[in-house]
Amino acid sequence: MITARAAATFDPVGRSVATARSFVRDTLQGWGFTDIVDDAVVLTSELVTNAVVHAGTAAEVLCLRTGDGARIEVADRYPEREIPLQQSLATMGSPDREGGRGLQLCAALASRWGVDYTPTHKQVWFQLDLPERPVGIRTAGPSLPTDLLPLADGRVRVAVIQIDRTGAVTAWNEDAEELFGYAADQVTGKPLTDFAAWPHTPGTSTGIAEALQLSRWEGSYGIRGADGRVTPVYASHLRVRDADGDPSTVCLLVRDHERAVLQTPLRGPVHPDPANLTEGHAADPFEVFIGSPAPDDLDGLLQRTVERARDMLDGDAAFLLLATDDETELEVRASTGLPSARQRFARVPVEAGPGRYGSARMPSVHEDLSEVPGAVPLLNGTGLRSVVTVPLKVEGRLTGSLGVAAEAPDRYSNEEALRLQFAADRIALAVESARLGELERHRRGSLSFLVEASDLLAGTLDRDQTLALMAQMTVPTLATWCAVYTIADQSSEPYLSYVLHEDEERIDGLKALLARIAPPDPVPTPGARVWNTPSEAAHEAALRTSMRSLGLGEPASVSSGIGTTLATSSAVGGETVVLPLVARNRVIGMLTLGKPSDEHFRQEDLELAEDLSRRAALALDNARLYSERTAISQSLQRSLLPPELPDVPGVEVEVIYRAAGEGNEVGGDFYDLFPIRDGAYGFAIGDVCGTGPEAAAVTGLARHALRLLAREGFGGPAVLERLNAAILDEGARSRFLTLLYGELWPQEDGSAVLKVVCAGHPLPLRLRQDGTVEPAAEPQPLLGVMDDLELYEQTVVLDPGDVLLCVTDGVTERREGPRMLGDDGLTDVLTTCTGLTAGAVAARIMRAVERFASDAPSDDMAILAMRVPGLQKD
C-alpha cells in the first residue's frame, strides 16, 4: 500500500544528477527511511545519469512510500535505448563500462527492480525494503560491567518534596531532612524558591517558577542547606492533581552525581560507548542528544538536531529556524520531512500574532493545524496537522526555534513540548556558538569579497566593463541571476543595461522576459526590497505557452518555444530583490538579484549585496563621469586641430598626431596648414606647456590668432610678436608656448620657398636628395615668457626631392630608461628616408619613435612632413 509520494522532473543537463540525489535524500530522510537512503541515492544517481547525460532527455523521478520500504521510479523519453534482456549478471556489463552499470547496481542493491516500456518513455524502478528492527529496547539501558556502573552512596536518599499551586512546600520527607538539614516543620509553608539555588547558565531558558508549573521537568540545580552550603541536586518534577482537582508538583531530588537514579533515558537507539564513561562522571547531555562526534559545522549540527528531534518525538517532519540579529524574524536553516530546497532560508516573523501561540519566544502545541489555518506558515500546504515548537534561548535572548510535526492530528501535548524544550535548552548554546562561528567566517569572507570587488571596480573606468563586473561578482556568489538597470538622468526611465545568469543558455530568455515587463521603481530607500513581477510574469508566460501547446487559448506561432519559456519560468521563479544604486544623492540605477523556483536569500547575503551595491553605484557613476569627460575632451581636442588639410600645389604634405594618456585630457600639441592668399600657405606646429583646460585655451588662441593675423598680411615675426602679447594678456592662465611658424610659396620651377620663425621649438630638419640632413632654422625665444621679443624670419628653399620635417618635443624626448632619442637620433632616422614620399617619411619616423621604447608614450607627438617632388616630365 502506497502511503506517500513525491515526484520531480530534472532537465537534461549534468547538474541535474546532483539535484536528483538531493531530492531523493531529502524525501527519504523526511519519511524517516535513513537506513536505505545511501543505496537509494546511489541507484538514483546512476539511472538519472543514464537519462540526462547518455540519453539526453529529461528525467522524471517518482518516490513512493510503502509499508515495508520505498519504491523509486526513474523515467526518460528515449525508449529505443538498448537494455540487457534474458542475460545473467555476469553479462549485464562491467563496472568499467559506461552502459549497463545502473541496472547492474539495481540487481545488486535493490530488493526488487524492473524496466517498464510504453510507446513514449522507458521507466526503470527499484524497491528497497526497510531492515527489521528489534522490538522493546527503546528505553532500555546498555548491559555494563559492574565496574562501569555509576557510583552512588551506600544508601541512596531520594528527597520527596510536594509543592502547592502557590509554590509553597506542603510535604518534606525524611530523606529531604537528611540531605538538606531542615526538619519538615521548618520548611512547610515556605516557598521552594527560598531554598533553591537556580542556575543562571547559558542555554537554560526556564526559571524555577516556570519549571514548577510544567507538567514534567527534569534538570539540575541546587538546594541551600541549613548549614548555608549548596548541595547540587538532580530533580524530576511531576505535576499532579488531587481528587478535588487542586494541582500540585511532586519533586524527587537526589545528589547530582546520583542523577542516573532519576534521569529519564532518551528515546531512540542511543548506545553509549562504555569506554567513554569515566568514574563519577555522567555523559554530556549535549553529546547524548546529538551523538558523538558532533558535527563540526553549523549546517551539519542543525541537520543532526532536526533528525534527532524528529526521532525523539516520533514525528514525520522537523525544522529548525535561527533568529536574525534584531530578533524580529526567524530564518529556516534545517529541516527533515519538508521540501528543504523550497523552504531553506525562508523567513517568518517572531511575533506572528497575539497571545502565546503567536510568538516564537514561548513553547506552543497545535493539536490540529486544519482548525487554525496559517498558524504555522512554514507548514502551509505540507499536509502536516499537529506540531510542537519550542524556543532556543541563550542568556534569555531568543536565538532560534525548534519544531516537530506529524501528519496525524492530536499527536503532541505539553508532555512532548517539555521533552523538546529540555533538548532545546541543551543544544541552544552549541548552536549559537556554531552560528557565531559561521557568522564570523562569513563576515571575514564578506570583507575579502568586498575588498576584491572594490579593487576590481576601481580598476576600470569603462561603463560597460563596470556593468559586467557588477553582474559577474554577484552571480553565482550571491544570486542565480542578475539584472542591472541604469538611469541616465532624473527625467529618464530605467533602462535594462545588463543581464547575467549562471547558465548561459538562460540569458536570452531572461533578457526577453525582463524586457517585456516594467522595470522596478527607482526608490532611493536603502536595503533590498522584494520584487515579485518577474516571477509572476514568468509563470503567466509558462501557463499561456502550456495552454497553447495543448490546443487551448490562442494558437502558438512557434511551437518549439515551450521549453525555453518553462526553463525561464523555473530560472526566475524564486525570490527576487531590488537594491538601489545611489551615488552622490541620486538614484543612477537598480541592481536586481534573483533565485530559481521557491528559493530565498539569506539575510547575510542581502547585507553583503547592499554593501556591494553602494560600491558598484559609485564605480558606475565614476565611469559615467569619466566617459562624459573623455567625450568632452576628445571633442575639444578635435576642435583644436584643423578638420582637414588643404592641397598645396607642387608640395606633398603629411601629418601624424598621437595624443598621450587615456584620452580624457586635452593635449598641448597642435599643428595647422592653411591658405593665406593666392599662392601662399601658412603652416605651424606648436606645443603648449602642460595639458588640460588651460593648455587648451592657449592652443585655441594660438591656432586661431595665427590664421587671423596671417590673413591680415602680417609677416611671420609680427604674427608671433602679437600672439606673444595675447598670451601674456591671459595673466595667471597664460602658458608658455613653443612654436614653429612658416609661410610657403610653391614655385613654377618645382621648388618651394619657405620663410620660418622657430620660437623655442625643436628645429625643423631639411633632408636633401643626397641624404644629408641639416637644421632649416635657428632657435629663438619661446612665446608667453617675455614682453619684448625681437624675432626674425629665415628663408629656406626646398629643391625638388627635398623634405622638411617638423616635430614636437614628444618625438625627440622619447625615452627608454636613461636613453633618449634626441635630435641626433631623429637625424639618423631621417637620413634613411631619401626618396620616400612625405607620407612614407612621416610613417617611418613614427615607427622609429614607437620602437625606441616599450612603454606607452608619456607626451603628445605631432609630425609634419613636407616634400617637394619636383615637376613632372611629359
Automatic annotation (TrEMBL):
Record organism: Streptomyces himalayensis subsp. aureolus
Database matches in InterPro entries: Bact_Sigma-Reg (IPR052016), GAF (IPR003018), GAF-like_dom_sf (IPR029016), HATPase_C_sf (IPR036890), HATPase_dom (IPR003594), PAS (IPR000014), PAS-like_dom_sf (IPR035965), PAS_4 (IPR013656)
Source domain of life: Bacteria
Keyword Hydrolase: yes
Keywords on record: Hydrolase
Domain PAS: 160-190
Gene3D superfamilies: 3.30.450.40, Histidine kinase-like ATPase, C-terminal domain, PAS domain, PPM-type phosphatase domain
CDD domains: HATPase_RsbW-like, PAS
NCBIfam families: sensory_box
Name of protein: SpoIIE family protein phosphatase
An MF annotation (GO) of this entry: phosphatase activity
PROSITE patterns: PAS
Keyword Cell cycle attributed: no
Lineage, broadest ranks: Bacteria, Bacillati, Actinomycetota, Actinomycetes, Kitasatosporales
